[in-house]
Amino acid sequence: MNQILLITDGGSNVGVSPVVAAAQAYEEGIIVNVAGVIDDGSIGEYGASEIAEIARAGGGMSRIVSTKQLSQTVQMMTRQTVVGTIRQAVNQELRQVFGVSSVEALPPPKRAEVVRVMEDMGETTPLRVALVIDASASMKPKLLAVEEAIRDLSLSLQARTGESMAAVFHFPGEQEPCVLDTPWTSSTERFGSLFGKLRMRGTTPTGPALLRAIEYFRESYGKIMTEDVHPASLLKQDDTDGMRSGYVV
């Protein structure tokens, strides 16, 4: 199962639209979640709208949070995306095999059995999360909160039974729109020196950064949609918060 987790305050201003890039990720089996980070003030109407549109196009969730809420939100979105994707895949199978619309339509004993299987799958399904960090000048006051969120997420991934890998990117780079800081790893130790090296810059090439993360998935795993057991294409559009319909936690 493949995710991109974008941490940004919105306001992309260089290169391809991040909404177009997120839609491409979704087509290739990668769900895009977006955590919009704010201070005590407002993120601005444009930034908030962009964040929601990126997540919607990427089949994921978006949340606008303060720096104090970021760590908890990042873990929640990663976990709930796994649960929601598995539930959609199971519901698809139930419709095909038993002719029922969802887990809730099963008789209680069978429903309990299916729920147990889904819970086990949520812990054991291989998970890859590419963290894409906005390091533009406006994010500088939020950097410590981002660092804490990434450390906490990596510990949460390590606690899973299944294989859990994370990679970290930041944008913009000095010579390129997006830089790979940490390749796929399950070890939190590799994140230790990342934030001391970041140099916050003015532009915000969010779309090119998402495209770079998609390219990295391809480089690492080839054609993702044919590899994963639970492709994102089993999900359907919903009007609530960017996740797909039938998503029950």
Q: In which order are the strands of the major sheet placed?
A: 3-2-1-4-5-6
Task: Give the tally of structural domains.
Answer: 1
Please report the first level of CATH classification, the CATH class: Alpha Beta
| Fraction of residues in H or I helices | 40-55%
Report the radius of gyration as a whole number of Å: 18 Å
* H-E order: EHEHEHHEHEEHHH
How many strands appear in the DSSP assignment? 6
Average per-residue pLDDT, rounded, comes to: 80
**Spatial shape:** globular
Using the coordinates shown, work out and report the CATH topology. Rossmann fold
Structure description:
This is VWA domain-containing protein. InterPro entries: vWFA_dom_sf. Strands 3-2-1-4-5-6 form a 6-stranded mixed β-sheet, with helices on both faces. α1 (18-27) links the parallel β1 (2-8) and β2 (30-38). It is globular and about 55 Å long. The chain has one domain: von Willebrand factor, type A domain (Rossmann fold, 3-Layer(aba) Sandwich), CATH 3.40.50. With 249 residues, it is α/β, with parallel strands linked by helices. 43% of the residues lie in helices and 18% in strands.
Briefly characterize the structure:
This protein is of the alpha/beta class and 249 residues long. It is 43% helix and 18% strand. The chain has one domain: von Willebrand factor, type A domain (Rossmann fold, 3-Layer(aba) Sandwich).
